[in-house]
Amino acid sequence: MPSVLAVCKRELAGYFATPVAYVFIVIFLVLTGVFTFADELGNFYNRGQADLRPFFNFHPWLYLFLIPALSMRLWAEERRGGTIELLMTLPIPTFGAVAGKFLAAWAFSGVALALTFPVWITVNVLGEPDNGVIFAAYIGSFLLAGGFLAIGACISAMTRSQVIAFVIAIVVCFLFLLAGFPVVQDALSGWAPDAVAEAVASFSFLTRFESISKGVLAPRDLLYFASLIGVLLAANAMIIEMKKA
Hints:
Layout: H1 2-16, H2 19-37, H3 53-57, H4 59-71, H5 73-81, H6 83-89, H7 94-114, H8 117-126, H9 131-156, H10 162-178, H11 182-189, H12 194-201, H13 205-213, H14 219-244
Helix pairs in contact: 1-7, 2-4, 2-7, 4-9, 4-10, 7-9, 7-14, 9-10, 9-13, 9-14
């Protein structure tokens, strides 16, 4: 555990040592504001409802591009710069390094998400929202970011190119989003058994996020994200070990 925290602190400090972190946060905050308050998009003021549905509805699609941009550098940059060898010579287990880098990126995305608190304050000033539902939606958004990050980190470990890691991560994350969409289920229903279609739908990030954002913190959804992140971090560590050989 101390080694995980040491890597996490090192990586998190590294984010704020460069302008990239601040650019990421500014882009995220600007886009969430535009998508929430623009009349053609979220239509926040004209809906006549005191909730943050317009705010959270766009999070999966923002994360689809912003989180891979954050995760692409986790291991690809280490491999390209040759610093991964130095990291691996430290008295830190591989999984500890993987978990530390992931937690730093997840914490950073959590900081960006937390900075959207003025939107929460705004909706309380304008009306009487169900703050329990909003809090659950924030948890769901944070878990969604963690799922995307785990995918992106695993892919980043496979290549030296950040661009390749970025593009592949977007594609894979997009597939996880669409898994529960009717168009995917209709395509599977033509040839696959119902059990297969249901299994594919169960991997849908969007379906689980929508359930949580409605205020339903079902154990199965929380366990899904926790299990997915754990499995992908283990796969990430295995890839790093294979690259060392």
